[in-house]
Write a structure and sequence with these properties.
The complex is a heterodimer of chains A (562) and B (296). Chain A contains 16 helices and no strands. Chain A has 562 residues and is mainly alpha-helical. Chain B contains 11 helices and 6 strands. Classes of the chains: A mainly alpha (562), B mainly alpha (296).
Chain lengths: 562, 296
């Protein structure tokens, strides 16, 4: 197919040679196995779905802005929150983070590509088609209410609601099948990242000299392999229940809906770490560069990340305190959940210690990362609150829980995704994003975020349950809900500014040069954008900050690192 | 400033001349064909068997194409190396370092208050704040027990929606619980003062004794309506603030009047553990206390 090039007898004029017909340009993206192009495809795909899921969130917030609203029907409302959750986790969070891993891991370890370039392409396309299949359900997934229904069973899809008797039609099947398809893509990428990290590091790059970004992506990939498999298994069991007469989750026939919860959350809680560890990875690169200091406590950061990986696999049933576990079970999951606070606390202290005494430059990536540190701290604190079983009994399924996990998913992960885009956009495109627009984006998003999610804690404490379609005006939630919705609109404006910045700066942005941030990892030693082969000469490193060593030959890091 | 060229290269580590080529995996459409086929097979389960059949055809084609890509020899494309100069230079300004003697090393805090000072401050403040609280009880509610029961009422199990008269009456459980809460809290906050005051930049009594209680009261005022609306309705925040400030000032003054003791931070860890061993008197030149030389 695209394996051969046509012979060209005479050289074309330069301008003409550089002008690639758009069909050929499209073709080059479809057949690419280049990790950078695939990384960008992942990121663009995820940003597209971020806008889609954001629009869904806005519709949800319009519906909840006032009591007794009927802006959308109850059926559409169910579909909206199901699709919002599913999209954000599976079509935004994981793809964008794997996109960054794809783009950056080979560059950071001095490799030319991923270990399995074709598997890499296959994984991306599976993820992409999985997403499209999920949204095709809007056209094809006729459910209880007739043709064209998206899945409406929540992103957690608890049994027995998903049983054929309660959810006829195919929308739940689309949910399961789409996630099975994209799940295989995810597994492929995880295998690729592990193989790349272990086998393609350049000379001198020992494991303890790897950038923390690569360490974290390695850990995320291991965690992904462990956690995606039970989800995929559970979805196949669900399909067997629905079509082949199985009874895995059918209590009347000897099955148990609780089994679904165990399967789902043994995936679902580590999934939070699959999403947040890459966000940590981004902070590990951005904070030191903009603080002009090496990361504080590199070995402790590695150990803490590995610790999070292991502990996160032991906490899943804290989502199930209300199902009536034994007191021993409750106690175990309370304690294991609280234990996660130790390695994450180490990380927060290390980021603060990195910033402490540094010469901080508050460029846009650093602004996002600084906000992340404080927001993640608060998210962690409410997480510790919810880890206490009696507290959870009070607030389970309330908006307090929604506020907590949005503090993690938006306050930590989305903020750091924005930081990463501002930080590495110049590398990928050769253009700087506008700092003015970036600061507008940051402040508007920060204000909108806090208006929405700070307030959400209070409405949760006042007893507002999650996933409700509307509420009566005498509940005392009216003003708070209006404030939450207004915050959502402020965030939406900020995201639109960001989207405009991406487009505007691609055309009009200032030329970036190869190293606009005066950074220290290997990707900044390549031109922006990097050539297909990444490095013409294989790099050799002697420390964790190879570019620091080159820039400061009289004061290199390798003299001090052990 | 270091400059790194991106010259042409045949491959890793070999000669790098402009116009050379590097082997890279050849672009291929078979992964997308296989992925599309796999998706169609899945989609066919909820649409039509024909879709699955078409997906299976795509999958077989994708597998065959993929195998032919990598067997017997993996296909590559030659990418010409373009010479692109890359500058590796720091934009940061280099500055001279001031060479400080070990005398100028900062060990903060060099001195701190002993633990007992915090306990004393907590006890003194705790006693002092009782006065405005009781004055409030007598003036506003004509009862000595009203402020005590407000504090300790949570510990009286059978109380639900007590009337003002109930709160103004004597209840031994309320007194017991209030005494416990009051004592423990005053001691803990006193200890906190003992630890914090040496670190406050200036006017520690004003900052710790006045500003901190005002902030604390403000936070409590903001949250009490959510945490315990019934209690919130009964607290007179002006009087509450006065008693908090009285506590802060008295505890702060008592702590500040205690003698300071040197911190153990400059001592080796083993010495702080009380280990007696040869060599503990020796300190590294870059880590010793400021007056090491003179002390010797």
């Amino acid at each position: 197919m695209a394996d051969q090039t046509l012979p060209i007898s005479a050289p074309l004029p330069e301008a003409e040679a550089q002008r690639v017909p758009w069909l050929e340009w499209m073709h080059s993206w479809v057949v690419t196995v280049d990790h950078k192009k695939l990384g960008l495809l992942y990121i663009v795909y995820a940003i597209f779905f971020l806008l889609v899921a954001g629009a869904e969130a806005i519709l949800i917030r319009i519906q909840l802005a006032w009591p007794d609203m009927h802006f959308v029907s109850p059926e559409v409302y169910d579909e909206l929150f199901t699709m919002h959750g599913t999209t954000m986790v599976f079509l935004v969070g994981m793809p964008i983070l794997f996109g960054f891993a794809n783009y950056l891991v080979p560059l950071m370890i001095g490799a030319r590509d991923m270990a399995f370039p074709r598997l890499n392409a296959f994984s991306f396309w599976l993820t992409a088609f999985g997403g499209l299949l999920l949204y095709f359900s809007i056209v094809g997934g006729f459910g209880l209410y007739g043709m064209g229904n998206a899945p409406d069973v929540g992103w957690w899809a608890y049994a027995p609601l998903t049983a054929k008797a309660f959810t006829p039609g195919h929308n739940t099947d689309y949910w399961a099948l789409a996630l099975i398809v994209s799940g295989f893509g995810t597994l492929g990428t995880a295998i690729n990242i592990i193989a790349t990290t272990f086998s393609l590091r350049c000379k001198g790059m020992t494991l303890m000299r790897m950038p923390l970004f690569v360490w974290l992506m390695l850990i995320v990939s291991v965690l992904t392999l462990v956690t995606i498999t039970p989800l995929t298994a559970a979805q196949i069991m669900l399909l067997i229940d629905r079509y082949l007469g199985g009874h895995f989750f059918d209590a009347q026939a000897g099955g148990s809906p609780i089994v679904w919860m165990h399967f789902f959350w043994i995936f679902g809680h580590p999934e939070v770490y699959v999403l947040v560890l890459p966000a940590f990875a981004i902070a590990n690169e951005v904070i030191p560069v903009f603080s002009r200091k090496a990361i504080f406590g590199y070995p402790a950061m590695v150990a803490a990340s590995v610790g999070i990986c292991f502990i996160s696999l032991t906490v899943w049933a804290h989502h199930m305190f209300t199902v009536g576990m034994t007191s021993v079970g409750n106690t175990f999951f309370v304690l294991s959940t609280m234990m996660v606070g130790i390695p994450t606390g180490i990380k927060i202290f290390n980021w603060l210690a990195t910033m402490w005494g540094g010469r901080i430059r508050f460029a846009t990536p650093m602004l996002f990362c600084t906000a992340f540190v404080f927001q993640f701290l608060l998210a962690g604190l409410t997480g510790i609150m919810l880890s206490v079983a009696p507290w959870d009994w009070q607030l389970h399924n309330s908006y307090f829980v929604i506020a907590h996990f949005h503090y993690v998913l938006v306050g930590a992960i989305v903020f750091n995704i924005f930081a990463a885009i501002y930080y590495w956009y110049p590398k990928a495109t050769g253009r700087m994003l506008s700092e003015t627009l970036g600061k507008w984006h940051f402040w508007l998003f920060l204000i909108g975020f806090h208006i929405t999610f700070d307030t959400m804690h209070f409405v949760g404490l006042l007893g507002m349950p999650r996933s409700i379609y509307t509420y009566e005006p005498d509940r005392g939630w009216n003003t708070l809900n209006l404030i939450i919705s207004m915050g959502g609109f402020v965030q939406a404006i900020a995201v639109l500014l960001f989207a405009w910045n991406l487009i505007y700066s691609y055309v009009r942005g200032r030329a970036a040069g190869n190293d606009p941030w005066d950074a220290w990892t290997l990707e900044w030693s390549t031109p922006s954008p990097p050539p297909a082969y990444n490095f013409a000469i294989d790099p050799v490193v002697r420390s964790r900050r190879p570019l620091w060593d080159l820039k400061h030959p009289h004061d290199p890091d390798w003299k001090y690192e052990r | 400033m270091a400059e790194m060229q991106q010259p042409g290269a045949e491959h890793a580590g070999s000669g790098h001349t402009g116009g050379a080529h590097i082997h890279l995996p050849a672009p291929t459409a078979w992964p997308i064909v296989l992925a599309f086929g796999f998706t169609l097979v899945a989609a066919g389960l909820v649409t039509s068997a024909g879709v699955s059949l078409l997906g299976a055809v795509f999958m077989i084609a994708g597998c065959i194409g993929w195998f032919r890509q990598v067997l017997p020899v993996e296909q590559h494309e030659e990418v010409e190396v373009v010479e692109q100069p890359v500058v590796i230079a720091s934009s940061r300004q280099l500055v001279d370092r001031i060479i400080l003697s070990t005398r100028h090393r900062a060990h903060l805090p060099l001195e701190t208050y002993p633990v007992i000072s915090g306990i004393k401050g907590g006890i003194a403040g705790g006693i002092a704040m009782i006065v405005p609280a009781e004055i409030y009880g007598l003036i506003a509610q004509h009862s000595l027990w009203y402020p005590i029961n407000l504090l300790g009422g949570a510990g009286v199990a059978h109380w639900s929606n007590p009337s003002t008269a109930d709160i103004a009456a004597f209840h031994w459980q309320g007194l017991l619980v209030a005494t416990l809460i009051h004592s423990v809290t005053c001691l803990l906050v006193g200890l906190l003062y003992g630890a914090m005051l040496p670190m406050l930049p200036r006017h520690p009594v004003i900052l710790g004794g006045v500003l901190a209680p005002v902030l604390w009261t403000g936070i409590l005022h903001a949250f009490m309506g959510v945490i315990n609306p019934a209690l919130d309705a009964r607290i007179q925040w002006g009087w509450f603030l006065i008693s908090q400030v009285v506590y802060g000032v008295v505890a702060g003054v008592v702590v500040a009047r205690q003698g300071k003791i040197p911190t153990g931070q400059s001592m080796p860890f083993a010495a702080r553990l009380g280990i007696e061993a040869p060599g503990l008197g020796w300190t590294r030149p870059d880590a010793g206390p400021p007056d090491d030389e003179e002390n010797r």
